[in-house]
Write a structure and sequence with these properties.
It is built from 7 helices and 20 strands. The radius of gyration is 20 Å and the shape is globular. The strands form 2 sheets. Strands 1, 2, 6, 7, 8, 9, 10, 16, 19 and 20 form a 10-stranded antiparallel β-sheet that branches. The chain has about 350 residues and is an alpha+beta fold. It has a single domain, classed as Anthranilate synthase. The relative contact order is 0.19. The structure holds ligand ISJ. Its EC number is 5.4.4.2. It is an enzyme of class 5 (isomerase). This is isochorismate synthase. Belongs to the isochorismate synthase family.
């Protein structure tokens, strides 16, 4: 299907308040879309099902499915010219009230204190920022995300019972192709200035190693030939992260995708270590609902070239549209060496990823 017909279909789906998702994978030039043909809210009750999943951070809450069975699927190739998105002129205003910074600093200090007292080793603490805008449609924002972040998984997801979410995430939760398994450990952040040849501090090296060790340890009994790459610098928009790639082979009759997802999610990249202690600190202290931020989303059991494929991503660098407001979510890993002011700035830089496309 040509791209303008696909956008027209999405617009009509939106006008009729029917669920849809449109997305583009990292480095690819193809748009994929599932358009649900009713407004039911389907929940994932078995990971044998096929479609597009949208899971919250809190795994006690329901994971939503746009099921392949109840949807039409379309794909479209993006040509070079379609990457050029017109920049609309509109008024926006950002409301970071002073209390917001103080509240985040206080939260981070509390996290560091809990780490110093030995409650846990790492915790990821986050916040939500509101931005008002006057006249921009989700589809235009989606196009701008596509244009601005070629190496991210970019999506726009809608369900009338939940709302509309958009994002450009750098982080894979898990990719499974046939019996081949892949994940990544991504953590540690610094701004990208002009080079990938940068130095990383002890704090970033430690917080990322925590994620790698966790994934390797927890998956060693579930995946064969588990191996990791060296750790390298990964560019995500205007930010750099430390990244290690991890791959293996699923064990016939032993590895199943549900077990792997439940083992990984939420990883110490978005929650902390030990998981339960960090999670209970987050639930008690963050004082807002992350909803689908730091959850995961993507294709589940899609058949391609005769194989079942799942491509799931961690929902980072994302926002939710609520009438004329964008709610932008961002956080960062806290360790004993964290400096509260730097952690605040890291969240500001992360929210820029979304603010940039609302201008
Ligand atoms: C929590 C976020 O990102 C995660 C935390 C990072 C960090 O602490 O440096 C880096 C990448 C992600 O794993 C976010 O973007 O909101």
């Amino acid at each position: 299907m040509d791209i303008s017909s696909l956008y027209m279909k999405i617009q009509s789906q939106w006008d009729r308040e029917l669920p849809f998702v449109i997305y583009r994978k990292s480095g690819e030039k193809e748009l994929h879309s599932f358009l649900q043909n009713n407004n039911e809210l389907y929940k994932v009750d078995s990971y044998d099902t096929t479609g597009f999943v949208f899971a919250p951070f809190d795994n006690r809450d329901d994971t939503i499915l746009i099921s392949a069975e109840n949807s039409e699927y379309y794909r479209s190739v993006i040509s070079e010219t379609e990457f050029e998105v017109q920049h609309n002129k509109q008024s926006i205003s950002i409301d970071i009230d002073d209390n917001e910074k103080e509240a985040h600093l206080k939260l981070v200090r509390k996290g560091i204190e809990a780490i110093t007292q030995g409650s846990f080793k790492k915790v990821v603490l986050s916040r939500k920022e509101e931005m008002h805008f006057s006249d921009i449609t989700p589809l235009v924002v989606f196009q701008k995300l596509i244009d601005s972040y070629p190496n991210a998984f970019v999506y726009c997801w809608y369900h009338p019972a939940i709302g509309i979410w958009l994002g450009a995430t750098p982080e894979t939760l898990v990719t499974i192709k046939g019996d081949q398994f892949f994940t990544m450990s991504l953590a540690g952040t610094q701004p990208h200035v002009d080079s990938l040849e940068v130095k990383w501090g002890a704090k970033e090296i430690e917080e990322q190693a925590i994620v790698t060790d966790y994934v390797m340890n927890r998956l060693s009994s579930k995946v064969d030939s588990l191996e990791k790459s060296g750790t390298y610098t990964h560019k995500a928009g205007t930010l750099l992260h430390l990244r290690t790639d991890i791959k293996g082979t699923l064990i016939p009759n032993n590895s199943n995708i549900e077990d792997i997802i439940k083992t990984l999610h939420p990883t110490p990249a978005v929650c902390g270590l030990p998981k339960e202690e960090a999670l209970s600190f987050i639930m008690k202290n963050e004082l807002y609902d992350r909803k689908y931020y730091t959850g995961f989303l993507g294709e589940l059991n899609i058949v391609k070239n005769g194989h079942r494929e799942s491509n799931l991503f961690v929902n980072l660098r994302c926002m939710e549209f609520v009438s004329k407001k964008a709610l932008i979510y961002a956080g960062g890993g806290i360790t004993k060496d964290s400096i509260p002011e730097n952690e605040w700035e890291e969240t500001v830089r992360k929210t820029e990823t979304m603010k940039k496309v609302l201008h």
